[in-house]
Amino acid sequence: AALRELRSQYEALAARNLQAAEDWYRARCARLHERAARSQEAVRASRREAGECRRQLQARLVEMESLRGAHQSLERQLQELEERHNAEAAGLQDTIGQLEDDLRNTKNEMARHLREYQDLLNVKMALDIEIAAYRKLLEGEETLFNMGSSGLPSLNSLPSPTYSFQPRSFSSST
Predict the structure, then answer these.
(1) Which SMART domains does the entry link to (predicted)?
(2) For 52-107, what is each residue's pLDDT tens digit?
(3) Do residues 138 and 163 lie in contact, with contact meaning Cβ atoms separated by under 8 Å?
(4) Which class for 53: exposed (0-12), middle (13-18), buried (19 or more C-beta within 10 A)?
(5) CA of 162: how far to CAs of 124, 158, 165, in Å?
(6) Which are the contacts of 167, defined by CB distance < 8 A and separation ≥ 6?
(7) What are 48-67's pLDDT values in tens digits?
(8) What does the alpha-carbon distance between residue 122 and residue 67 come to, in Å, rounded to a whole number?
(9) Distance between first and last Cα of the chain
């Protein structure tokens, strides 16, 4: 009988322990299921977020490739513009050099013409002085001639020659 009672107590204790273990197991499973559901929801949210990030990444990569192509195109255009500008600048420098040479040559030619003009002006002035001297000589001779020929009335009836010199103005065609 004591054994039976011990057995019944042992079985009751085992049943209570079993019930307690089952309750603990069910509570633990319920919490784990709850956690698993939350974790699955978090995983789904993370997957959705990762998918969205992947789509954004793909969009950014496509945009980046597009911008890279545009950048390369702009770089080529810039290089072409720089080459064209450098060529134009070199052409303009050549033109400036030619114009400076032309200006220098024109200045030298003008200086030469000015020297020639000065020489001609000096010759003209010398000729004017010489003509004035000859005029004085002729007038002096004329007066002597008139005084010496006062006995000849027929010669006095001739008009007395007057010499007038009209200087010509020289103009240069260049």
Answers:
(1) Filament (SM01391)
(2) 999 999 999 999 999 999 999 999 999 999 999 999 999 999 999 999 999 999 99
(3) yes
(4) exposed
(5) 21, 12, 10
(6) 124, 128
(7) 999 999 999 999 999 999 99
(8) 79
(9) 157
What is the distance of C-alpha 96 from the center of its chain? 18
pLDDT at residue number 172: 46
Q: Is 106:134 a contact under the CB 8 Å cutoff?
A: no
Structure tokens at 11: 């079985």
- Classify residue 138 by burial, with Cβ atoms within 10 Å: 0-12, 13-18, 19+: middle
- Looking at residue 68, its amino acid is R
The CA distance from 14 to 4, in Å, is 14
Structure-block tokens of residue 124: 């003209």
Which amino acid, one-letter code, is at 87? A
**For residue 160, is pLDDT > 50?**
no
Pick the closest to residue 164 from 132, 127, 133 (CA basis).
Answer: 132
Return mean pLDDT, the chain: 86
pLDDT above 90: residue 151: no
Q: Identify the pLDDT of residue 141.
A: 84
Name which of 102, 106, 126 is nearest 114 in CA terms: 106
